[in-house]
């Protein structure tokens, strides 16, 4: 039964430690053939003698790429701030896996994405993507620039036609912050041959602080999250393309951008009981997608407004629904309530929005973590979740039955012995054959390949 606003407000309050679920999570993992076999994990994490990555017994890692090392293409050095990432299958008779990796570089970045002719949008911008090609043994065959001249490339998402949509998490305009062009766009990247997509902003998809996207494979609708830390917070969008499922380059034909309205709920943070759902979700046209004068989240959407949420981050498609993550909400920042992470499910056919997961504040590996960020399906069913909170940083697994287990822990101390600090994880994804997990450490920029008994 749908909750009323009065019921929601009555339930809101300080969230205790732990994690809550709307029954089992099997509906999230409809796309995973092994969803019903989820277990409680792979055992305790074993400290890595090399001080890079702690894993359960039986698992091992390989460092594929490291910030500051030469790119194999000879175009310069491997950029830092490794963030969102996706793995794509090889074409017949060629390499085994293609990775596309974001670099969330701002103007202060130590290792910028090298500019490459034909792949650079704004020569004054330090961000972009790199592409890594792997053979069947997991060895790096090539590493090159896939797009350059963008800024703050945080996350994104794959398309059904096997391209990567990289998202700029910024709203700088030309002449601001040292940039020569407007920023805050989505760009399409071809993992096999980036020059076929070039560096063209998909302007109709909106100019705002993008985080991630997910594409409905049935009709080509693109769902987009906006990561805004300050009030008014970000929105959840859908983009209706003029050429749905048209393949590489079709999104450049334009379309219509809309923002989600949950009637009677201006801020999703007040919803704190799993299973709460809302029917009759509305989609409101965005007045000015290019935000020429006013950022989209500040614009006037007319009577009823739209629904906001602090720190909307990960977004993915599973089964017949789209799932998106709110990393946290803090009333001190202007949020209507506090929480330590939510996962929402939107069913387009039923126009229903449901809260399916709520996270607790703990970072101890014996308990669930806080601040979920990038998220993906796991080979044995359930999710792999990158933690972006305080203290030690983990990749957590979450089974369809609601059991949380540690999968990896960062062992690189980027602080001091007295005040240790660990770089967050990002971009967790799996190879097409589901035998290898790829994940990034944001700082120092490192890409790992993790193999082991995934089907155990």
UniProtKB/TrEMBL annotation:
TM regions (residue ranges): none
Top-level division of the source organism's lineage: Bacteria
Family annotation (PROSITE patterns): TAT
InterPro entries the UniProt entry points to: PhoX, TAT_signal
Protein name: DUF839 domain-containing protein
Taxonomic source organism: Streptomyces palmae
